[in-house]
Fold:
Amino acid sequence: MPYVPNTPDDRQAMLDAIGVASLDELFEMVPPELRLGRDLNLPAALGELPLSTHMAELAARNTPAGQGVCFLGGGSYDHFIPAVVDFVAGRSEFYTSYTPYQAEASQGNLQALFEYQTLITQLTGMDVSNSSLYDGGSAATEAVMMAMHATRRSGRVVVAESVHPEYREVLATYLANLDTELITVGTPEGTVSPDQVEAAATNQTACVLVQHPNFFGCLEDVESLAEIAHRSGALLVATVDPISLGLLKRPGDYGADIVVAEGQSLGNPMSFGGPYLGIMACREEFVRRMPGRLVGQTTDRRGKRCWVLTLQTREQHIRREKATSNICTNQGLLALRATVYLALMGPTGMRQVGELCLRKARYAAERLCSPAVLSPAFDRPTFKEFAVRAEGRNVEQLLQVAEKAGIFAGVPLGRWYPQLADCLLIAVTEKRTKAEIDRLAELWKTG
Amino acid sequence: MRNTRATQLLFEMSKPSCRAVQLPDCDVPMQPVEELLPREAMAPQPPPLPELAEPDIVRHFVNLSTLNMSVDTHFYPLGSCTMKYNPKRNERLASLPGMIDLHPYQPVSQLQGLLELLYRLQQMLVEIAGLPAVSLQPAAGAHGEMTALLVAAAFFRDLGRKRSVVLIPDGAHGTNPASATVAGFRALAVKSTGSGFVDLEDLAAKLDEQTAVLMITNPNTLGIFERHIGQITQMVHDAGGLVYLDGANMNAILGITRPGDFGADLMHYNPHKTFSGPHGGGGPGAGPIAVAEKLAPYLPGPIVVKDAGGYRLDQNGPKSIGRVRSFFGNTGVLIRTYCYLMTHGPDGLRRVAENAVLNANYLLARVKHIVPVPQGDRCMHEFVASGAKLKADRGIAAADVAKRLLDYGFHAPTVYFPLIVREAMMIEPTETESKATLDAFAETLFRITEEDAELLHDAPHTTSISRPDEVQAARNPILCWAAEAKTAP
Structure:
């Protein structure tokens, strides 16, 4: 019992004060026939030292890509995390507090989340951001549900096949018990065709969901897609890579109505896929349809500026079955990390990281795709990630050759796209060097 | 001594051309960006983020942190949230590079240590629940609720039976009815008796062939164990429905009784509550679910399985509802959960429950003379006091008491929930608080009720702000900073 401060004497005094003879008596409201009556069948307790040894052994049986040369992407990226991010998030006043129900005892969290909301609106060019959702995948689904409420259309949702396959799976899971038709528009050329989206978007369509840059790293024709969605009375929901927004046009500037993103890239470790950060921002007119916590500015009784949770009448603890969503906890600590990250990066840092990713990824694509070892899977402009086709070569074997040299070279696409069974998705962040890219190119040329 | 500049916003501190992060120079050919990207895809200028220096950023956030109350600095008896001590060893062990630097799409051959951990965690959660199958995927308790309801919906769909109603006792967390709606069901409330139990007559009247699931919290939100839980689950099963246990209050029954043994078919855990994963100022949590054998095929994957070749990830089978979020789950939170369970073992876990219940009953005994506890003299891990008499006699509201507690260095209890108790103050001390802390809290509560009502109406007096105007915040929402404070229509 390492975390119970009371001594046997304390416990006896407490039992006496309660007026019971034993701990057992306190549990008399649990009917005897329902009691376990034995010890749980669990491993025996480990003290801190043996537990540390045990965990070190388990950790040693993993090969962390983030400690090697990581070209893995697909929604989780090996970006640089400045020390200040870990330092601030390690302040236990932040990580051992909870949802700021008592504003006076939570101004630190509330102000940081207000800053987060503001930074996200600056980054996306949207009017309003909430204070976070679970992850990029469930955020995309929440955005679709929000679009269905906002447009009062629940007949159809149109999604491009170039949206992260797992995000599309989440969407299908949520829609399974509702009467909404999910139309997936194919992307054989690497991006979605605006004409095909136009054909799919009916006057019962709530929204068009696209990813930009998309799952293959390609840039979509987002301006045309926004126009098409709006022409049919639907909303454009865009899921984006926040790292791209130092360089690429902001979703608010190309006509997106709701923007979601996986915020892992903003100062959060890869951590085998979670916990991550679901970003969501929208146009002002949809704010009352938004899921999740919102922090607003107000003044206190002395007239001092301060922050509170607001528009709570959208939320489950007030509205119960009529709430805009069932979300209660969010990802406060990861939103804090993103806030610190964006403050550290500033406009220049975000532009620079975007340029580094772009240039290094282009260099890698050229190096790896010549001379004819691999070829680009698609003829489309890309940002920090690109798909390559290994004609006549075994994808698994290529990955193994790289792995032996400590290089985590790419994500095979065949798992989600049978037609891309001989393709790899390769991501290049600012952490990768020319030497590492050259080494991989040499390995694959000879291997 | 408070740093009054702390509440400046980052945006107000911004100074043109200030820099914090210096990234390395580009080591590949410096092709102009305009040649690499179509012009129409590019932003004309970088996003208008603030420009700051590193020392100023650090001072800003450290000062902000001091404006929070937290478990490490204060007693935090926020009922229903299980604000227990967050072990520091778990933070360190979950941050080992061999754990935290894993990419979700690495091949399983590179993940055997982590997968063994997650596999063992699945088994431990099976044992604690008394239910044979677990999915670690849901990202939070409410997410687990919704996932489990989708599992139930798929189960009934498979049986060819359309069942559209989810029954929920009126004292339940708001997430329960909200999750039911999101999952495509109609939520229907079941009444409580005066003493806080599910009203069996009302339950019987509402059970029919439309009933898909009864969602029940046990111990319930008053901190009482449903004495008739065996009968309740039997009634639901007889009507062809399933029983869902909201596991928010598992801290009270670890190793004492198991949801599967009292008739639950599905449940979620809140590892950030029961298993001490820090609350992070509002998250991340996690929401693993456990289900009965007949529901196992519908669980969302990936699930860790073990075979001759080692551990691997079983993706969604043909009957699975499919994934509910991207990647595996909130792995970082799950690693902390594993560390917590390994630290305690079977004996330690039961003692967690015993001490949580002991602390709550002791505090109840100490405060019931100050603020009445309508449910009686016994509770499990928490109890709900009512300030109704205080309000009627002296005009002191539960919120006044809550705010005044902050002045004395205690976080407030949960107030005005559950809705079935007037002027509710829901108090959950957890097992990691000492008798001395509980004594000090009780004495303070007593002192507060003796104080001048006017003083309490204006409380708190010592915090950085006091009584924010929430009506103004909602009527005229300002949700982000703007150079000229912009307001929504």
